[in-house]
Amino acid sequence: MGVFLLLLVLIGLETSKAAAQSVGVCYGIVANNLPPAVEVIDLFKTNGIARMRIYNPNQATLEALRGSNIELAIGVPNEEIQSIANDISSAANWVQNNIINYANNVIFRYIILGNEISPNDPTSQFILPAMQNIYGALGNLQNQIKISTAIQLSLLGSSYPPSQGEFSPDAIPYITPIVNFLSTNGAPLLANVYPYFAYISDQKDISLEYATFTQQGYTDIGYQNLFDAMLDALYAAILKTGASDLQIVVSESGWPSAGGEGATTENAAAYYTNLINHVNSGIGTPMRPNQSIETYLFAMFDENMKPGATSEQYFGLFTPDKSQKYNIASIN
Ligand SMILES: *[C@@H]1O[C@H](CO)[C@@H](O)[C@H](O)[C@H]1NC(C)=O
């Protein structure tokens, strides 16, 4: 790591200490070499990471979280959505087993129904009724725990310039009632936001500097970084559904260190450091200025059994032996 990079890391640290805690980390477990949950929760604590996203109601993780003060975003896996949508007692059982049984000493922030469900996926029709059933089953926890879903930005049919952002014709009938439900309940929409994938798919128009927050100055459309442009395109699309007050929470963002175009340790270190700095800074985006941006870094560990592109296995902030890949001493 060069002196320049080290400097960036140190600046990031200093800023983040004073700022509101807006950064969490996704704890994915698609691997066969990860430490036990108890050690992972300790690793979150020793690194000052105050929020966690998990994808399944893993009982060992929930047990290890007891008394930890880590705020949790917990996923309902895609395979369970349909039965929860069709059967109130199935929703009630899920909430009893994974929320109520732990709620006395685990802090639940969100229940996330579905991750990156495409409008063409048969499961998409069950997301809203599943959200409604889980909401009903929460009873007096309704005000404390927000129900949402995590979308991918491919739901946008148009995203450039950001002010022209809108959902694709396919996505509109799927996402509009969900957005209305969130708005009614004061819950945010969660979105997985990856400048990395936008960058590797269009290096002709997108520079590495723009994608990693290192561009000097603003583009002619008024943006200094791609992350803000992607977020604002989604804000513009949400506005067009009629929900003006909805917040976006970034439920995943990251950059791989290997396994693909632009996937280097140096680029990833710059991305994570600058992302943390930016979302904690309180600058916000051009359309939503002057606020910190709640963001979950993807991910805690390199996951050696992730399918898809090779780079999918190299998004960790830590290796499975618990060493930091980027010398970010305190992530929050
Ligand atoms: C954001 O903060 C700046 C600087 O304090 C201020 O000039 C501007 O009016 C604020 N914008 C909004 C939308 O609050």
TrEMBL record:
Gene3D superfamilies: Glycosidases. The gene is LOC101500460. GO terms for molecular function: glucan endo-1,3-beta-D-glucosidase activity. It is an enzyme of class 3 (hydrolase). Residues 1-20 form the signal peptide. It holds the Pfam family Glyco_hydro_17. Keywords: Glycosidase, Hydrolase, Signal. It catalyses: Hydrolysis of (1->3)-beta-D-glucosidic linkages in (1->3)-beta-D-glucans. Its EC number is 3.2.1.39. This is glucan endo-1,3-beta-D-glucosidase. The lineage of its organism: Eukaryota, Viridiplantae, Streptophyta, Embryophyta, Tracheophyta. One of its GO terms (biological process) is carbohydrate metabolic process. Belongs to the glycosyl hydrolase 17 family.
